[in-house]
Amino acid sequence: MSRPPLPRSPEGAVASDMREGAELVLSGVGGRLRAVLESIQPGEVAPRDLERELKLHKTLCWRVLQVAYAREPLAAAPYMPGDEGMEKFLRAAGVWGVEKPVLEAVREATARYRAVVKHHAGDRASFEVMAMSLASPKEDAVELRVARRAAYRSAGYTWGVQTAVRVLAGIITPVGDDLVDFATLRAHIRARRVRKEGVIRLSRTVEHDTDNPGPRRVMALPIEPESVVGGVPLLPEFSTRPLPKLAAFELPNKNIEYRFTEQALGEQSGVTVFTGEVRRNLEGARWRTETNASNAIMMTIRDPVGLGVIDLWAPSSFANKHRALVVSAIAIDPLVQKPEEWHVLPTSISVERMGRGLLAARLGEAPAYEHALAHCFRRLRWAANEYELFRVRQDYPVLGSCLVLQTELPGRQ
Predict the structure, then answer these.
(1) For 2-44, how does the pLDDT look when each residue is reduced to its tens digit (9 = 90+)?
(2) What is the CATH number of the domain that holds 388?
(3) CA 393 to CA 274: how far, in whole Å?
(4) Do 302 and 383 meet the contact criterion of CB atoms below 8 Å apart?
(5) Which stretches within 135-251 are classed as H helix?
(6) Virtual CA dihedral for 284, 286, 287, 293, nearest 10 degrees?
(7) pTM, full prediction
(8) Mean pLDDT lowest for which of 7-16, 104-113, 173-182?
(9) Does residue 141 sit within a domain?
(10) Structural domain range at position 78
(11) Is there a single domain that holds both residue 125 and residue 153?
């Protein structure tokens, strides 16, 4: 059986480049599908119209329309029906009355598409990821979420744990002209084991100095000193009661990690933990210097997480520029390298300005967060309505990545 030829450019040369080949075949399939749709109903076609005319499932009809009228060829890749679905559509169109040459043109274009998939990617799933990475950011943001969700499920089984939501909130407060106090609220919400070997770990806040990169011990005070358990600065009012047993482990870099032990499996045994701590009189976080131009709050994803959120609370005097990044925590550890050396990953993420005061903090996936935050502001005796919230969030952040909210420091006034 002969293989379908690879697509050729208008000049006649075989399209060996991934982008060129993908655009050619997807554009070809789209154009030939439009000819089929024009035969059925001239003008704009809605999925429900196609469903009614061809008596097909609405999802298949929707996919066909997405490919036929894609904003750009590469954006059509994740919507391409499978071989069985495409043939089902073409048979139904034939029964309806679409002429055979028009249908055969779609089959030929689809065969060329399969050949390009095999040539450049080997399998369809890999091809779709490649095509999405070349498409515009809007399509990339939507479709890569689907890929990240699949990775979250797979990693959950592999690592044996899943955390529904992780929140890292930082509150920065000026102290005099040069120093700041920095409070941190962390939440691990509905962390559960899905395999008996799974280990649930609590993240800790670690200081990082760009003048002297490298891991550093935690130097923080608990917001609730009376609630510290085994060194963990708990906020028990907002955490699961009773908590499973915690054990401390010293890591190779001398930092401390806390792990739950003796925890059962499943959703009903999931735990929610809120912690709060504050570091006083920090230097180098107020003004830009020759060696330090920015602050950064980082959330390293070492276990499968359904939603990662970084919040920065800053008073109006900190009217600075913020940006969001996703960087690799594997290729180059951002905790031991300067920002200009980070390996930034190509994913869509941004900083959202949420507003002022506690009402801006509402997070539907974590209802207790707003109340825990109000508790921290009260304990610290800081007025929440004087702070503005900047938020970064990502669904299903990739294992081995690090979410970053970076703040450009101003020059000394």
Answers:
(1) 444 444 433 333 345 778 888 888 989 998 998 998 888 876 6
(2) 2.60.40
(3) 18
(4) no
(5) 137-159
(6) 60
(7) 0.65
(8) 7-16
(9) no
(10) 18-135
(11) no
